[in-house]
């Protein structure tokens, strides 16, 4: 199967929707501290889901992994290392969402992630000169530039929002900890460190090539060729997140929450009330100072669900990347822009912009349209190269 940029864009949009949606289940978790449900979703997203799906879709997965390590050990080590560095971005990204809200946190952090993750790989591989001399390359770079403008416009909307809505309105939208200055600083760090995921995927290309060979030999689609690469990069990310979560769990004494002791939930959307604060079973006195069993089970399910939804963003990303042709690094811009688009839409649904002026809402709308436009431009640039080779 050859390049098909428009199909690739559709895959990236589906992946973007999954990524923007993964924080929604967190809003239903009751009385668990951040580090508790974060490590559970991470275990589901980074340890469980990647090898299971790869096992069913890539023939002789273990043999492909062993061959890749035997023939390209340094590439896999770099993929793991970049995954570890990306893990720092994952941690700080969660904090950025806490301080900025879903719409703005995604826009700033992932916009910067798109910039670094898209441009650094072609510079490293010496493709930037070709980009600047081909029509398709110039179109793709224009799309990246439009994406950055969209991020800047969203940032302006966020700054305007901070000065317009009341603390009560922020709490109603689940933004009790909203802090634009602190959030932007964390989002910048998150954006830079998260871009290492793109570097990890690039480093793991030899593993993807071996998987592609195996898939074709078995008469299967090469859409799944990058699934083994995700295993290596995501396991690297889990290492960082596990260490950080373990430190917080130890410092805060949160370990008992796994068995039902109550904690705090900074991402809880509803206002604190007797139900959300205690969530007790009036017929069971043992639950007055503990989570009811059904609530505890629900917390585990919601956290794991968030992790699986999160993984599917890269499941579809890996499929979209195979359709983008020579300039497949542009997939990163498409993916990040798609996430921001759907995160902005979720922000509107969750009334994060409720109470803001028409000017602020106009800025949000313009930012959203610019991001949609950037995905179309990048997709068209890949189409030009796939059809005309220029």
Could you characterize what this model shows?
The chain has 390 residues and is an all-alpha fold. It has one domain. Helices cover 74% and strands 0% of the residues. The protein has 15 helices and no strands.
Give the gist of this structure:
The protein has one domain (5-388).
Q: What ranges have pLDDT less than 50 throughout 5 or more consecutive residues?
A: 267-278
Total individual domains:
1
Estimated radius of gyration: 21 Å
C-alpha end-to-end distance:
20 Å
Task: Quote the beta fraction.
Answer: under 5%
Strand segment count? 0
Q: Helix and strand succession?
A: HHHHHHHHHHHHHHH
Our count of helices gives 15
Question: Given the helix and strand composition, which structural class is it?
Answer: mainly alpha
Write down the oligomeric state: single chain
Shape: globular
The whole-number mean of residue pLDDT values reads 81
Sheet of most strands? none
Work out the helicity level.
Answer: over 70%
What attributes does this structure have?
390 residues, 0% strand, globular
Topology diagram in text:
Blueprint: H1 5-21, H2 34-57, H3 61-71, H4 73-124, H5 128-133, H6 135-162, H7 167-172, H8 180-194, H9 196-203, H10 205-217, H11 227-252, H12 274-278, H13 293-321, H14 331-349, H15 358-388
Helix pairs in contact: 1-13, 1-14, 1-15, 2-11, 2-13, 3-4, 3-10, 4-6, 4-8, 4-9, 4-11, 4-14, 6-15, 14-15
């Amino acid at each position: 199967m050859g390049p098909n940029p428009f199909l690739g864009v559709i895959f990236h949009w589906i992946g973007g929707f999954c990524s923007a949606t993964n924080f929604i289940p967190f809003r239903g978790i009751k009385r668990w501290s951040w580090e508790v449900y974060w490590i559970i979703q991470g275990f589901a997203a980074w340890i469980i889901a990647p090898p299971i799906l790869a096992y069913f879709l890539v023939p002789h997965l273990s043999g492909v992994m062993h061959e890749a390590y035997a023939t390209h050990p340094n590439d896999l080590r770099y993929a793991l290392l970049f995954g570890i560095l990306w893990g720092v971005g994952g941690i700080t990204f969660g904090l950025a969402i806490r301080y900025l809200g879903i719409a703005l946190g995604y826009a700033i952090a992932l916009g910067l992630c798109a910039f670094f993750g898209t441009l650094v790989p072609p510079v490293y591989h010496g493709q930037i000169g070709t980009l600047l001399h081909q029509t398709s390359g110039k179109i793709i770079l224009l799309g990246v530039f439009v994406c950055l403008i969209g991020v800047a416009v969203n940032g302006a909307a966020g700054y305007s929002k901070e000065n317009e809505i009341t603390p009560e309105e922020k709490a109603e939208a689940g933004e009790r900890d909203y802090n634009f200055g602190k959030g932007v600083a964390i989002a910048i760090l998150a954006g830079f460190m998260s871009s290492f995921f793109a570097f990890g995927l690039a480093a793991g290309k030899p593993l993807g090539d071996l998987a592609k060979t195996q898939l074709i030999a078995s008469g299967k689609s090469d859409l799944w060729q990058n699934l083994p690469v995700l295993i290596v990069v995501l396991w690297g990310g889990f290492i960082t997140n596990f260490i950080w979560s373990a430190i917080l769990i130890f410092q805060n004494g949160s370990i008992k929450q796994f068995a039902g002791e109550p904690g705090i939930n900074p991402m809880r959307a509803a206002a604190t009330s007797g139900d959300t604060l205690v969530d007790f079973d009036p017929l069971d006195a043992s639950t007055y100072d503990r989570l009811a069993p059904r609530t505890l089970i629900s917390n585990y399910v919601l956290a794991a669900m968030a992790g699986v939804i999160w993984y599917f963003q890269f499941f579809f990303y890996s499929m979209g990347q195979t359709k983008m042709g020579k300039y497949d690094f542009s997939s990163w811009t498409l993916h990040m822009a798609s996430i921001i688009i759907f995160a902005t839409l979720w922000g509107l649904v969750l009334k994060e912009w409720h109470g803001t002026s028409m000017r602020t809402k106009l800025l949000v709308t313009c930012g959203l349209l610019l991001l949609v436009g950037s995905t179309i431009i990048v997709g068209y640039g890949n189409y030009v190269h796939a059809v005309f080779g220029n």
